[in-house]
Design brief:
657 residues; mainly beta; Nuclear Transport Factor 2, Chain: A; Beta-galactosidase, Chain A, domain 5; 3 domains; 30 strands; 14% helix; globular
Length: 657
C-alpha cells in the first residue's frame, strides 16, 4: 500500500512540474512574441521567416539568390488613416530578390495571413543595393587577382593581409560597362597600419569586379603614389579628463511608448526602422485641447548623394547614393547610453533581415530621450519686476549608421511649440587621397592637405527628405512665401516697408523651387478646408537651415543621375509608390529617375494630398582639424506651425521644481 502511495505522489509531482513547465513555456513564448495591434507595426522575426519560406517554396531560387530588401509592405493609406483599434487589417511583406548568377531582379509581396505569394514581377535593367556577401566576394576576388598582387608588390607590399579592400557601388559607368549590363563594384585598397586604415589609401589602384561572373572586369593602376605609413589611430593617449555630467530624471520620463507608438507633450507618432530609409515616422499628430490634429502621415530620409570633386578617372566615379545603393537603415549601429544618447535615454531594438533572409533582433538601434535646450520663452516686466520664463524641453528620436568611412546620425526632434525638427549629424573619417605632398600647395585646387601624404578631396553631402504632410487632413495646397523690401515712393517715403508675398504653387513643375536668402524664402503647406480663429488657412511651413547648391555643372552625368539634388524643394501629388527621390534602384541607374520622373505628368497641387521633398546640402572642403576623425557637423530644417494654432501652444508649459 505504501509503495503504491509513493508511486502516486511521484506521478502527481511529475504532472505538477510538467504543467508548470508548459504554462511557463507558453508565457515565455507570449512574452517574446510582439503584439501586432496596428497596420504600421514592423515585421517580426516570425513574419520575415514566413515571407522568405513562402518565396522559396513558390519559386525555385538558386543558391546564389539573395534578398537585398525585406520590409513591411505598407498598407493602403486610407485603410491606415481610418483604422480603429480591434479592426482586422492586412499584413504583407515586400521583398526584393536578386538572382546574382542570372543578373535578374524581382519584386515580390507575400500575404502573411494566407502565407501566399500575392505578387511577383521581374524588374528589368536595374540593380538593387549591394549586400554583405558581395563585399566578401569582392575582397576574395581582388586579393587573388595577379594584376592586383603585382601592383601591391610594386609598392613594397607582400603581406596581402595588411591590405583592406573597400567595395563601392560603381557610380558613373563608361559605355562598355553600360553595354555589358552586369553588376559591378569598384574595389579600393588601403594599407592597414592600425584601426584607421583610411589614412593609408593605396592610390591609383582600382579593381572593377563583375559580381555576376565572379571575375575582375577591368583593372587600373595609374602609377605609384606614396602613402602614409603612420598609425592614425584615434584612441589618443593624452586624453582630456572631464568631470562627470549627470543627466537624470528622478521622477521618470515624460514620454510613453506603446508598441511602436510614442506620446509626448501633445505629440503622438509611430516609428519603424526601415532597412533602406532608416528611422521612419508615421501618423504624426498633435493634441490641441480635445482635438487630435494630423500634421504628417509619413516622413523619411529618401536619398543621399555624395559627389567627390576630383576629375581624375579614379575619383570621378565616386558619387555614393548611401540610401539606395547601400541600404542606409541596414547599416545602423547598436548605440550605448551615455555615448550616442545621454544616460537618461531609452534604447529600442529593431528587427532586420540579412541578405540570406535571416531575421535578427538588433539591440539598441533606436534611441529616444528628453533634453533641456535653453529657454522656451521668457518675459521680464520692468514695472513689476516679474520674471516669467520656461525652460525648453525637447524629445529626440535618433539612429546612427556607419557607411564605410563616414558616420551619420538622423535625429527627429519634437518641440513643445509644435515644431518638428530634422537634424542630420555628419562625422567619421574623411575619404582620404594618397599624395606625395607633405606641405600644402596651391597647385591642387580639388581639396586640401590634411596631414602628411593625406589629401582631403572637396565633396558634398546632399540629403533629400520625403514629407507626406497632412495638415489638418489630406486636402492641402502649397504656398511660397517671399519677403521683399519695397522701393521708396509715395506709399513708402521712409523706405522701411517690408512686404510678404504669398504665391500658390499650383502644379508639380511650378513647385520645383530653390532657396533665396534675399527674400527669406520659405514654403507652407496649408489646409484646403480648415481655418483658424482669425479666418486664415491652418498651415505648417518648411523653415530651411543652412544649405548649399549642387555644384556638378549642367551636362555632368551625376547631375542627371541625382536630379533631386539640383533643386531644394519639390512638391508632388501623393502616389504610394513614389518613395525615393533618386528612383527605386539608383545603383547603376539611368539618368532622370525619381523626382524628375514623378513630376513629368505635372499634376495639380491644389486641394490635394501632396508630398513635399526637401533637399539640403553640405559642401565640405576638408581641413587638418577634420583629421583623424572629423568633429560632428550638423545640418537640418524645421517644420513650424504657421496659423495652425490660435496662440503659442507652449504657453501652458509648467515647470516642476
Amino acid at each position: 500500500m505504501i509503495k503504491h502511495l509513493k508511486q502516486f505522489f511521484k506521478l502527481v509531482i511529475f504532472l505538477i512540474v510538467f504543467v508548470s513547465f508548459f504554462i511557463g513555456f507558453k508565457v515565455t513564448l507570449s512574452a517574446q512574441t510582439p503584439k501586432i495591434s496596428h497596420p504600421l507595426t514592423a515585421l517580426t522575426t516570425a513574419e520575415i521567416t514566413t515571407a522568405v519560406a513562402v518565396i522559396k517554396q513558390d519559386k525555385k531560387l538558386s543558391e546564389m539568390a539573395v534578398f537585398p530588401l525585406i520590409t513591411l509592405q505598407e498598407p493602403d493609406k486610407t485603410e491606415v488613416v481610418n483604422f480603429t483599434a480591434g479592426q482586422p487589417f492586412q499584413r504583407k511583406a515586400f521583398l526584393v530578390v536578386y538572382e546574382r548568377a542570372k543578373n535578374q531582379t524581382y519584386e515580390s509581396v507575400v500575404d502573411l495571413k494566407t502565407k501566399t505569394l500575392s505578387f511577383w514581377k521581374q524588374i528589368t535593367n536595374v540593380q538593387p543595393a549591394i549586400v554583405n556577401l558581395e563585399y566578401q566576394l569582392a575582397n576574395k576576388l581582388v586579393k587573388s587577382d595577379p594584376q592586383w598582387q603585382t601592383a601591391m608588390r610594386k609598392r613594397g607590399i607582400t603581406d596581402f593581409n595588411r591590405v583592406q579592400i573597400s567595395c563601392w557601388a560603381p557610380g558613373i559607368l563608361n559605355k562598355q560597362e553600360q553595354d555589358a549590363g552586369n553588376r559591378l563594384c569598384r574595389a579600393l585598397s588601403y594599407y592597414k597600419t592600425g584601426c584607421n586604415y583610411y589614412g593609408s589609401p593605396i592610390e591609383g589602384v582600382i579593381a572593377n569586379v563583375d559580381l555576376n561572373t565572379n571575375k575582375i572586369a577591368s583593372f587600373v593602376d595609374t602609377g605609384i603614389v606614396p602613402f602614409s605609413r603612420e598609425n592614425w589611430n584615434y584612441n589618443s593617449k593624452s586624453l582630456i579628463s572631464l568631470k562627470a555630467l549627470k543627466i537624470l530624471q528622478p521622477d521618470g520620463k515624460n514620454f510613453q511608448i506603446q508598441g511602436n507608438e510614442v506620446s509626448w507633450q501633445g505629440w503622438k507618432f509611430r516609428y519603424i526602422m526601415h532597412p533602406r530609409d532608416g528611422l521612419v515616422l508615421y501618423q504624426v499628430t498633435y493634441k490641441d485641447g480635445e482635438k487630435i490634429r494630423p500634421v504628417l502621415y509619413r516622413a523619411s530620409l529618401s536619398e543621399m548623394v555624395v559627389p567627390y570633386g576630383d576629375p581624375q578617372p579614379n575619383w570621378a566615379f565616386r558619387n555614393a547614393f548611401d540610401v539606395g545603393e547601400y541600404n542606409f537603415g541596414s547599416l545602423a549601429n547598436t548605440m550605448e547610453l551615455g555615448k550616442e544618447i545621454p544616460e537618461n535615454g531609452l534604447l529600442l531594438d529593431a528587427v532586420l533581415a540579412n541578405e540570406k533572409g535571416e531575421p535578427a533582433v538588433i539591440p539598441g538601434m533606436i534611441g529616444i530621450y528628453e533634453r533641456d535646450h535653453g529657454m522656451l520663452w521668457k518675459h521680464y516686466e520692468y514695472n513689476t519686476q516679474r520674471n516669467d520664463v520656461r525652460r525648453r524641453r525637447e524629445l529626440v528620436m535618433t539612429m546612427t549608421a556607419a557607411i564605410d568611412n563616414y558616420d551619420y546620425s538622423l535625429n527627429w526632434i519634437f518641440h513643445q511649440d509644435g515644431t518638428l525638427e530634422i537634424q542630420n549629424e555628419l562625422t567619421g573619417i574623411v575619404l582620404a587621397q594618397g599624395t606625395a605632398a607633405e606641405k600644402q600647395s596651391e597647385n591642387n585646387p580639388y581639396g586640401r592637405l590634411i596631414a602628411k601624404n593625406i589629401f582631403g578631396v572637396n565633396h558634398q553631402h546632399f540629403f533629400n527628405y520625403r514629407l507626406d504632410l497632412d495638415v489638418d487632413g489630406q486636402a492641402n495646397s502649397v504656398m511660397e512665401m517671399n519677403v521683399q523690401a519695397l522701393p521708396m515712393n509715395q506709399d513708402n517715403p521712409w523706405g522701411n516697408a517690408i512686404a510678404l508675398q504669398e504665391t500658390p504653387l499650383t502644379t508639380e513643375t511650378a513647385a520645383v523651387r530653390d532657396l533665396d536668402m534675399k527674400q527669406s524664402r520659405e514654403w507652407m503647406i496649408v489646409s484646403a478646408d480648415k481655418k483658424n480663429s482669425l479666418g486664415a488657412a491652418t498651415g505648417y511651413m518648411l523653415m530651411p537651415g543652412s544649405n548649399s547648391i549642387f555644384l556638378p555643372v549642367e551636362g555632368a552625368n551625376i547631375r542627371q543621375k541625382a536630379g533631386f539634388a539640383t533643386h531644394h524643394v519639390w512638391v508632388t501629388k501623393y502616389q504610394p509608390n513614389e518613395l525615393y527621390a533618386g528612383g527605386n534602384y539608383p545603383n547603376q541607374t539611368q539618368p532622370g529617375q525619381g523626382l524628375p520622373q514623378y513630376i513629368a505628368d505635372n499634376q495639380s497641387l491644389t486641394n490635394q494630398d501632396i508630398v513635399m521633398w526637401y533637399t539640403m546640402g553640405v559642401t565640405h572642403v576638408p581641413k587638418p582639424e577634420d583629421w583623424p576623425v572629423m568633429p560632428t557637423h550638423r545640418v537640418g530644417f524645421k517644420l513650424v506651425p504657421r496659423g495652425f494654432f490660435n496662440r503659442n501652444p507652449a504657453i501652458n508649459v509648467v515647470m516642476q521644481n
